[in-house]
């Protein structure tokens, strides 16, 4: 059992670094992402949080989703509260802390961003064009400034909805990679953000990291202190 788990972890790590290094790998969907051509990007993002798939996202589900994405307990409470307070009422059309996923799915704005087709599906060609335009130093990743410019001109549905939180700052925090002391979002990650599979990938990575950390008592104690915040 332990050996199998370890092998899986190692395999996961190899797959990840390979995928990050090779743009060609991009088209491949990860196993845990919902596999349905009929779901729009926004629906996939939402599905990630709706763990019992009843179409409603409770505060607890948002909290648990943020924890799965690697956010500490305190931050998850704060962000979860902000997200559900902001989206609960607007999607339910009555004061509520539960998000009504059906109404988040209108998808009206998704097609305006330039990365999606009329139905709200991701279009690789358009993404390539978009990325090339904003990756001004052509290092294959977007830093904070490049991301700011991108989102200024191309507000996606999701970011529109998450407008009250730290927007791409949170995205950078959760999905960014360190490069010479700066956080950057790689092309691969941004693509996954747009196609709706990023949250699932992040949750996989966080789970693997937590399992690994759990192996050593010292790391486990240190991490649980970190996770409180
Ligand atoms: Ca639910
Ligand atoms: Ca760049």
Q: Mind explaining what this structure looks like?
A:
The chain is mainly alpha-helical and 229 residues long. The chain has one domain (39-228). The chain is built from 12 helices and 5 strands. Strands 3-5-4 form a 3-stranded antiparallel sheet. Strands 1-2 form a two-stranded antiparallel ribbon. A hairpin with a 2-residue loop joins strand 4 and strand 5 (182-186). The longest helix is centred in the first third of the chain and has 20 residues, at 2-21. The protein is globular, with a radius of gyration of 18 Å. Mean pLDDT is 76; it is low at 7-32. Bound molecules: calcium ion (2 copies). One calcium ion is lined by residues 50, 52, 54, 56-58, 61. One calcium ion binds at residues 135, 137, 139, 141-143, 146.
- How much is the radius of gyration in Å? 18 Å
**Strand arrangement, major sheet:** 3-5-4
Identify the overall geometry: globular
The H-and-E topology, N to C, reads as HHEHHEHHEHHHEEHHH
Report the biggest beta sheet as strand number plus sense, adding barrel if it closes: 3 strands, antiparallel
Tally the structural domains. Answer: 1
Strand content: 5-15%
Q: Helical content, roughly?
A: 55-70%
Poorly predicted parts: 7-32
How many strand units?
A: 5
How far is it from the N-terminal to the C-terminal residue, by CA?
A: 32 Å
Give me the secondary-structure topology:
Layout: H1 2-21, H2 41-49, E1 56-57, H3 59-68, H4 73-92, E2 99-100, H5 101-104, H6 124-134, E3 141-142, H7 144-153, H8 157-161, H9 168-175, E4 177-179, E5 182-186, H10 187-195, H11 198-214, H12 217-228
Helix pairs in contact: 3-4
The site of one calcium ion has 7 residues, from β3.
């Amino acid at each position: 059992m332990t050996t199998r788990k370890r092998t899986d972890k190692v395999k996961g790590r190899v797959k990840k670094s390979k995928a990050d290094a090779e743009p060609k790998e991009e088209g491949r969907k990860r196993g845990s992402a919902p596999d349905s051509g009929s779901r729009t990007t926004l629906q996939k993002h939402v599905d990630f949080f709706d763990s019992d798939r009843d179409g409603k996202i409770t505060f607890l589900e948002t909290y648990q989703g943020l924890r799965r994405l690697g956010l500490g307990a305190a931050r998850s409470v704060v962000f979860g509260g902000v997200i559900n307070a902001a989206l609960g009422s607007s999607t339910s059309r009555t004061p509520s802390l539960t998000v009504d996923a059906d109404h988040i799915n209108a998808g009206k704005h998704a097609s305006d961003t330039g990365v999606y087709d009329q139905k709200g599906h991701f279009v690789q060609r358009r993404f390539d064009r978009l990325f090339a335009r904003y990756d001004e130093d052509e290092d294959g990743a977007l830093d904070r400034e490049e991301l700011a410019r991108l989102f200024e001109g191309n507000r996606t549905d999701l970011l529109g909805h998450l407008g009250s939180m730290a927007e791409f700052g949170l995205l950078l925090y959760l999905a960014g990679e360190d490069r010479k002391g700066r956080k950057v979002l790689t092309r691969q990650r941004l693509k996954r953000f747009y196609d709706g599979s990023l949250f699932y990938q992040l949750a996989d990575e966080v789970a693997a990291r937590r399992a690994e950390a759990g192996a050593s008592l010292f790391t486990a104690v240190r991490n649980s202190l970190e996770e409180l915040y």
